[in-house]
Design a protein that fits this description.
Largest sheet: 8 strands, mixed
Mean pLDDT: 94
Structural class: alpha+beta
Shape: globular
Distance between the termini: 6 Å
Bound molecules: ligand 2P0
Number of strands: 14
Amino acid sequence: MYTGKARAYTNIALIKYWGKKDEHLILPMNNSLSLTLDAFYTETTVEFNKSFTEDSFFLDGIKQDQKQTAKITAFLALVRQQYQVSLFAKVDSRNFVPTAAGLASSASGLAALAGACSAALNLGLTDKELSRLARRGSGSACRSIFGGFAEWQKGASDQTSFAEAIVSDNWEQDLAMLFVLVDDGIKDVSSRDGMKRTVETSSFYAGWLSSIDADLKTAKQAIAEKDFTALGEVTEANALRMHGTTLAANPPFTYWSPESLTVMQLVRQARQNGLPCYFTMDAGPNVKILVEKKNLAALKQFLAHHFSSEQLISANAGPGITLLPEEGSEKS
Ligand code: 2P0
């Protein structure tokens, strides 16, 4: 048998990935830029074993059904094909999230799986190769190979689409992200389905694409100059543009709940009160607030009038993927 283990942290995009030009290869329509966080991560052990007759997937110790295993199985099939392996595998994943608030992330999950496969099969992949492999599991996973800021270069082929670390002089260590967990009770549109519907039907999608290059340039310049206001403003504007595209899809949809709008309004109010902070949102109603670490306590205090402490989860910048080879690559 061949076993390997890896830990990967989730990342939040400041400039979003929204839309694929190749669904099979997971090639995105646009570059994206993210911050990897330390508070939420996945640890995954994978075992390839000739005695297995099928792939299996355990999440937090619970065996997952076929539907929940589909993304994992598809990824394992790709690994088998790409690296000439014929064995089935058992995947054992643990999500480390501060609450059971639905923050489990496919970014950390698929990045950890890619790392665990690399460790188990002794593939010796570089970070770039690992990023390309993780991308095939879930687009955003390619950014979780790296700590701090990362940019996913959309590329034009499987070979040329991968994330890279952005040189930042460790400025990300001055930043924090506060998650405001809100519950909406609305049926989810998965990000995969949501971005597909948007690309295919939204009359606003062209506008989204046309604004990306300028947003990326602004964000990268802000990181280079350690300009929090510039980074925050472009983060918030980019998220609003992404979410705007869903309103013009057919059928239209939104990830926003009334509470999401309340948080957005509170963020604007905090700014008016002299507390610099900026929001972003992904394919769900929770709001993430980018804030300088030195202002995190004040922001939490301000929001504590409206939300319980369980709803306010903070994170700092986190590290890249860690392969845990001590458990790896034993043959028997
Ligand atoms: C992002 N999201 O850049 C964007 C913003 C959600 C909104 O990447 O289909 O799970 O597996 O490539 O990576 C979530 O989408 O989608 C995502 P697939 P993924 O973080």
